[in-house]
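Tokens for chain A. Residues wanted.
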């Protein structure tokens, strides 16, 4: 005997809170087929009569006036020996009855008004011949509501409602199970679901419940309406609808947190749906007898998950809320007024508060009662709305009354070892602590821990604060002072290596911690000198390799030392010197030969004669272009890379020569036509030349040494006659010596 997978499906009713533009004539929201054994024929016992019931559900508001089928096209199919089905018989069954179902509105809740389901029932008796294979009775219909969220293309996806009558079921005159309750049309989002989806079996067979896949059927993708019952009817096995994975699946058709699931033994569906919408949910009921599967039915229905508004709800102003338990707190005040914000008052006909006062039950009938609590501590109470009524609610109240807190803490650390200081806090209170706070006094803080530790970067007197706050809001704090003056666990000095030329200045940075000015610090620089600063600067005057020793003693006598061997390497420095020749240098003889006379270890030279003139020769020559004081710089380098320098000044004396002829002939033959002086005139100052004739008349004057007399009066007048003339030249030399020259000259024509 082979049992095929025939699922039972729950589908959510269409909601007009969804966009009207997507509400087509699609309206089928579920269906189920069951059967009852009636009799066997007395003449031919192989003829069995069954009573079949088809229930089809439609969405009243989402169908745009489309009605249930007046006649349902039913196909009866018979399985052959190979497992394939063929049409055995087709029927058109008129609708027996219709009714609008109660939507099973959740108690104490307001739900959307536009939700409604109509049930159509089709019933008939059918005589079948007992077979060694299964019969399938099938009804197919298009289409589902277009707004279903958990499958693809619901508006063009039809449904198949079918039931299988197995050979074992035929042989044993079996009746199919029948569902006990109509599925809930409305489920409130974010509220716990507990729906009994069980069925009853008249033979008492074992029933196993599960979610399973909904079947595609009817004119899927085509014209809404029933499928003809002839050879065009779909044949088992039927295909499942296409679920929107991964959010929805056959086993998780709605989702939720916790996820909506069905108990396999009881058929009870539980969970908390948390997504609004319409969902196809399929529930199968498998029927076992003596451990053998003899049948299966399914129901296909559409669930609406909507946002409900509860009409009777307990609400209290509280510090925190978890479900229906509220916390109302007070601190150092044992008289509390509890603010009752429950709603809706119009739906609350009775209420009371009850508190356990140290073992005595005390009731209060005020809406927001003022309660005097005898002492600090925790008190349990309850608020009940409409007690013993169908629409009721209650909340448990915990009143926590606290007082000022007196926290303490222990401090633990090694006196001389600079490690983390451990702190252990303690506070005696019956109210749970809400927060804890440590302030170490050095800018660092910790929270929410009774046990903590901290490493201080600097020594000294520490003032540590420990503060607490309980759930009521009561606070308390304490401060402990202690001296923390250990020796550093390790002495750290920078630089950890140094190589330089004497004299070498080394700045030592003491990064050891913890230390401050209260610590005794001794440095042994290795050259016979000592220091006491935290981070000293020291000059090494001679070349050598030096080891450093650092000794630190804390104010309470904790001692630490470290030797840093061969850290400082001071190298020898060369001695720069030079000479030159000749010693007397002037512009007439400006070339100089420089001679290095530095120490013998020099291997490199750099001479600077001016900003742009330099040489790297050991004994370079140089020719000066300018007179005056000139600075020569020599930098020398030895094999250690150390450098020495020396600056010396040279004086380049300015010299000049100036000579005049005793005659000239201005006859324009380009030879001796002009009377003027010749020589080296660089640096000449205040030049003046005058020429007089023998009668004492001045006939030429000039202040330009490059301008001569051409034999004309003032060089532009008439030509003067041949003869003897008197001239006078006066000028100042570069050395500021005044020179006056007066003599006679002869002019020839």
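Reply:
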């Amino acid at each position: 005997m082979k049992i095929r997978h025939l699922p039972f499906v729950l589908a959510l009713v269409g909601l007009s809170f969804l966009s009207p533009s997507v509400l087509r004539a699609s309206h089928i929201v579920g269906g189920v087929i069951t059967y009852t054994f009636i009799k066997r024929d007395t003449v031919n016992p192989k003829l069995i009569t069954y009573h079949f019931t088809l229930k089809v559900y439609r969405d009243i508001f989402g169908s745009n006036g489309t009605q249930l089928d007046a006649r349902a096209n039913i196909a009866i199919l018979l399985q052959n020996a190979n497992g394939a089905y063929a049409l055995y018989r087709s029927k058109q069954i008129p609708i027996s009855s219709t009714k609008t179902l109660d939507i099973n509105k959740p108690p104490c809740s307001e739900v959307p008004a536009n939700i409604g389901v109509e049930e159509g029932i089709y019933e008939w008796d059918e005589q079948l011949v007992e077979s060694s294979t299964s019969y399938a009775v099938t009804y197919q219909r298009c289409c589902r509501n277009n707004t279903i969220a958990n499958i693809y293309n619901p508006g063009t996806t039809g449904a198949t409602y079918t039931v299988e009558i197995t050979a074992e079921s035929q042989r044993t005159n079996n009746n199919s199970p029948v569902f006990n309750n109509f599925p809930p049309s409305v489920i409130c989002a974010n509220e716990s679901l507990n729906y009994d989806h069980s069925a009853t079996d008249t033979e008492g067979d074992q029933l196993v419940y599960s979610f399973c896949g909904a079947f595609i059927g009817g004119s899927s993708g085509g014209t809404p309406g029933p499928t003809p019952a002839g050879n065009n009817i779909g044949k088992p096995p039927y295909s499942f609808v296409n679920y929107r994975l991964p959010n929805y699946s056959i086993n998780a058709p709605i989702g939720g947190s916790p996820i909506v699931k069905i108990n396999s033994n009881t058929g009870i569906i539980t969970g908390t749906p948390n997504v609004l919408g319409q969902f196809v949910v399929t529930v199968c009921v498998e029927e076992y007898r003596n451990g053998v599967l003899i049948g299966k039915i399914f129901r296909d229905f559409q669930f609406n998950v909507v946002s409900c508004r509860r009409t009777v709800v307990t609400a209290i102003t509280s510090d925190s809320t978890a479900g229906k338990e509220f916390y109302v707190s007070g601190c150092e005040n044992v008289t509390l007024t509890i603010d009752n914000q429950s709603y809706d008052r119009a739906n609350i006909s009775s209420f009371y508060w009850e508190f356990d006062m140290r073992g005595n039950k005390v009731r209060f009938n005020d809406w927001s009662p003022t309660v005097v609590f005898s002492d600090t501590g925790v008190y349990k109470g309850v608020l009940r709305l409409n007690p013993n009524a169908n629409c009721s609610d209650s909340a448990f109240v915990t009143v926590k009354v606290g007082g000022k807190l007196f926290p303490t803490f222990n401090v633990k650390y090694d006196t001389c070892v600079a490690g983390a200081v451990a702190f252990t806090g303690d506070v005696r209170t019956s109210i749970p602590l809400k927060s804890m706070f440590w302030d170490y006094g050095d800018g660092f803080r910790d929270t929410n821990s009774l046990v903590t530790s901290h490493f201080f970067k600097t020594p000294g007197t520490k003032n540590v604060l420990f503060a607490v706050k309980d759930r009521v809001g009561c606070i308390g704090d304490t401060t402990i002072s202690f001296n923390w003056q250990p020796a550093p666990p390790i002495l750290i000095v920078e630089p950890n290596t140094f190589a330089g030329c004497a004299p070498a200045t080394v700045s030592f940075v003491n990064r050891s911690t913890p230390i401050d000015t209260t610590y005794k610090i001794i440095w042994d620089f290795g050259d016979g000198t000592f220091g006491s600063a935290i981070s000293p600067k020291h000059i090494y005057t001679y070349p050598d390799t030096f080891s450093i020793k650092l000794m630190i003693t804390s104010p309470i006598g904790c001692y630490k030392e470290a030797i840093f061997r061969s850290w400082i390497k001071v190298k020898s420095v060369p001695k720069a010197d030079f000479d030159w020749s000749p010693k007397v240098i002037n512009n007439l003889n400006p070339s100089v030969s420089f001679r290095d006379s530095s120490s013998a270890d020099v291997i490199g030279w750099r001479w600077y004669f001016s900003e742009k003139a330099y040489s790297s020769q050991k004994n370079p020559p140089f020719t000066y272009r300018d007179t005056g004081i000139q600075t020569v710089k020599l930098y020398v380098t030895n094999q250690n890379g150390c450098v020495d320098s020396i600056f010396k000044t040279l004086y380049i004396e300015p010299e000049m020569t100036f000579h005049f002829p005793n005659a000239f002939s201005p006859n324009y033959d380009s030879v001796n036509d002009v009377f003027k002086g010749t020589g080296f005139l660089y640096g000449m100052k205040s030049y003046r030349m005058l020429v007089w004739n023998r009668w004492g008349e001045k006939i030429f004057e000039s202040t330009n040494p490059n301008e001569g007399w051409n034999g004309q009066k003032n060089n532009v007048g008439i030509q003067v006659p041949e003869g003897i003339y008197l001239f006078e030249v006066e000028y100042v030399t570069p050395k500021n010596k005044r020179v006056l020259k007066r003599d006679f000259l002869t002019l020839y024509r």
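The chain has a mean pLDDT of 88. Residues 439 and 445 are 5 Å apart (CA to CA).
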